[in-house]
Every structure is written in C-alpha cells, then in structure tokens.
Amino acid sequence: MLKISGLKKTFYRGTVHEKVAIRELELTFQDGDFVTVIGGNGAGKSTVLNLIAGVFEPDCGSIELDGIELTSLPEYRRASLLGRVFQDPMCGTAADMTIQENLALASRRGKHRGLRRGVTRTEREQFVEQLKTLELGLEDRLTAQVGLLSGGQRQALTLLMATMQRPHLLLLDEHTAALDPKTAARVLALSQQIVEREGLTAIMVTHNMRDAIQTGNRLIMMHEGRVVLDISGEEKKKLTVEELMARFSRASGEALASDKMLLA
After folding, report:
1. What is the pLDDT at residue 143?
2. Cβ-count burial of 156 within 10 angstroms (0-12 exposed, 13-18 middle, 19+ buried)?
3. What is the pTM of this model?
4. DSSP state, 141?
5. Helix crossing, 151-163 with 99-107: angle to 10°?
6. If pLDDT is split at 50, 70 and 90, which confidence band does 112 have?
7. For the chain, how far is it from start to end, CA to CA, in angstroms?
8. CA separation (Å) from 9 to 22, 36, 190, 218, 259?
9. Quick one: residue 58, left, alpha or beta (phi over 0 = left, psi -120 to 50 = alpha)?
10. How far is it, in rounded angstroms, from Cα 105 to Cα 125?
11. Contact indicator for 169, 83 with CB cutoff of 8 Å
C-alpha cells in the first residue's frame, strides 16, 4: 500500500540551525492499516506526513503509494490520491462558502468541471445523507456559511470532505489537538467510524498516548527522525500508557518528559 524507503530530510543544511528531521526512514503500511504515530516535539511525525503529501521534498529516498512513485510528484499531483485533515479546524474548509458549496468542491475533486449549476438537487440529497452520519445536525444547515460553525463542526465537516472521494491514503495531522476534550473525543470517534466504514488506510499523528493506544491497529513511536517502536496486533491491544512510556525510554535512552504525551 505505502512503502517508504531510505527517506531523509534535513532543514537549514549547512547553517548553524541545521536540523536532521528524518533519518533513513524505512516503513511499509498495508492496505487497511490505521496507524497512529506518536513522539515528542521534533521527533519527525508531521514532517513524515508533509513528505508524503509533497509539502517538503526529501533529500533522498522514495515514497510509493499503490505502485505510484510519489517522490518526484508535485503536491497538487498527489491531491487526488490523498485526503488530509490538519490540526487547525479552519484549514480544511472555505469559511465564506456554505456547507453544501464546500461539499460540492470536495465531491468534484479530480473531476472535470464545466459550466453548470453549483449544487444540483441530486447532490444536495446526497449531502444530506452524508451529513446525517456525523450526527451533528448539519444536514439541516446546508445553506449556512461554514465560518459560522464551531471548531468541532468544521473539523467533522473537513473529515467528511477529505474522504468523499475515498482517498488511497488519509493523513490526520493532530486533527483533534485544537479541540476541547469532549469535541476531540467525538471527532476521533467519527474518524474511526469513517476509516472502518470506507475501509481506508490512514495515518494519524497525535501527542496523546491514550488515543494512540486505543485507536487503529498499529502504533509507531518516533524519536529524532527514526522509528523506535512499532507495535501492532494483540501486543498493541494489551499496551498501557505506563508500559509505552517505559518501552520508549528503553528504546530511545531518554525519559519521556512531554506533558502533552501524558494526557489521559
């Protein structure tokens, strides 16, 4: 499904601010994997997602998705293959457009667009059914501007938009971090429902250890640009926060000190 080989990325090379972000990364994700990625600040978590998405260009190495070599493709060429939800709820939607207009844009991603009605009756009916799955009452607010929605509602809408065309890979970049605990739990539950219902392959970056353990079928922990833990299956199901902290300390040689990673 996704194969990352020999990936390296260094920022500010040759300056006093040089930072090696990714070191010889080797990873393979199978079709249907829901992988959570955790690690301290500067571990390389979001950098990996940005390299996959084409935001950054790697120094060397390759990224292959469903047999398609992504490494040399510009960001816009990868858009039809990837769905992405960012940490900031304001990044995934157009605030001045209505809910149905945002959904229309997402539903036509990668398709030919001619001169016709912005939203057809058939599309409107489809949008209502899709919004009902969110259980947020948005199906009754199709003509409301997205800028009037709460952060959680916008993030849930972004999640729906990112998966409407069934992407080859869904990237979730700390997509619940900016939400209050109750709303974050709801958006995370929606993420799991959509991934399972659509049979998607997904990578979720998070700082929350408990979320990383309870979500998905595989957990990867990064430290200084490399993978120090890779846990899946029954081993992941039996994992506790305390055991994960201890295993990180043994694998990295450092104690885990980030408060954000200790949140229950």
Report:
1. 94
2. buried
3. 0.90
4. -
5. 20
6. low
7. 32
8. 5, 21, 33, 24, 27
9. beta
10. 15
11. yes
